[in-house]
C-alpha cells in the first residue's frame, strides 16, 4: 500500500579531512567493524524499514565491497549508489532510487553516526505517521555567542530557541524530491536536508534526538564510540 513504506538512505560518500588518516572515517573500525557497518545495522535491525540504500564514494567502492557488502550481506541492502561532490548531491543520488515511491517515506542518515539507537529511530518513525517532515535535534546546553570575526563577541543568543540538528531526518519522498529540485534550481546548498524543506515553506517537526548520536569527526570520537558501544553491549 502506498504511503506506508519507510526507506533509509545512508549518506557515506564524504572524504572527511579532519580525521588525518589514510582510511576514510566511515571505514575505520569500531570494535573490529567499520563505522558504516554499525550504522547500516541499526536500520537493518528495524522491522519497519523496507530497504537501506548506502550512498558511497566511487573511490571507496573497493573498500565498501570488501569490508561491508561482501562481509555482512545485509538483507535490506540490495543495491548501493555513488554519491556526488556535496552531501546534498549524495542525498539526491540516493533519492533517485526511490523516485517511484513519492507517497512513501525516507529517513536520511549520516553514515558516520553509528551510535543512533533504536529508541530514537522509533521516535522518528512514529512522528512520520503524523508529519510529513521531521528532523532529529537536541536542545542546546551551552551558552551561545555570535561573533563576526571569530575574535570578539557581538551578542549572546537565547539558547532556549536553538536546537542542534542531527540525523535521521525524515520526509515524505515527494516533498524531499521537490525540495532538492528547488534548491538545485536556486543554487542553494544546505548542510542538511531539513534546511531544503524549510525553504519550501513546509513545517519540519523536531523529534528529540540523543546526545550520544555523535557524528564521528575526530580520532577522539572513535575512542568514545568504541567505549560507548562496549558499555551498551555489557549493560
Ligand atoms: O561533511 P558532513 O559532516 O556534512 O558529512 C555528513 C555525512 O554526509 C557523512 O556521512 C558523509 O560521508 C556524507 N557525505 C556524502 N557526500 C558528500 C559529503 C558528505 O555522502 N559529498
Sum this structure up briefly.
It is built from seven helices and eleven strands. With 235 residues, the chain is α/β, with parallel strands linked by helices. The longest helix has 16 residues, at 219-234.
Question: Layout of helices and strands, plus pairs?
Answer:
Layout (H helix, E strand, L loop, with lengths): L5 E7 L16 E2 L2 E2 H10 L4 E8 L4 H12 L8 E2 L4 H10 L8 E6 L7 H11 L4 E7 L4 E4 L5 E5 L5 E10 H14 L7 H6 L5 E4 L10 H16 L1
Parallel strand pairs: 1-4, 1-6, 4-5, 7-11
Antiparallel strand pairs: 2-3, 6-10, 7-10, 8-9
The structure holds cytidine-5'-monophosphate.
Cytidine-5'-monophosphate binds next to β1 and α3.
User: What is the oligomer described by this structure?
Assistant: single chain
- Counted up, domains total 1
In total, how many beta strands? 11
Helix content: 25-40%
Mean pLDDT: 95
Query: What gyration radius follows from the Cα positions, in whole Å?
Result: 18 Å
Low-pLDDT sequence parts? none
For the biggest sheet, the summary is: 7 strands, mixed
The CATH top-level class label: Alpha Beta
CATH fold node name: Spore Coat Polysaccharide Biosynthesis Protein SpsA, Chain A
Name the shape in a single word.
globular
The strands making up the biggest β-sheet line up spatially as 5-4-1-6-10-7-11
Second rung of CATH, namely the architecture: Alpha-Beta Complex
Structure class: alpha/beta
Tally the helices: what do you get? Answer: 7
Q: How would you name the CATH homologous superfamily? A: Spore Coat Polysaccharide Biosynthesis Protein SpsA, Chain A
What compounds sit in this structure? Answer: cytidine-5'-monophosphate
Give the helices and strands as they follow along the chain. Answer: EEEHEHEHEHEEEEHHEH
How much strand?
A: 15-25%
Could you tell me how far the N terminus lies from the C terminus, measured between alpha carbons in angstroms?
39 Å
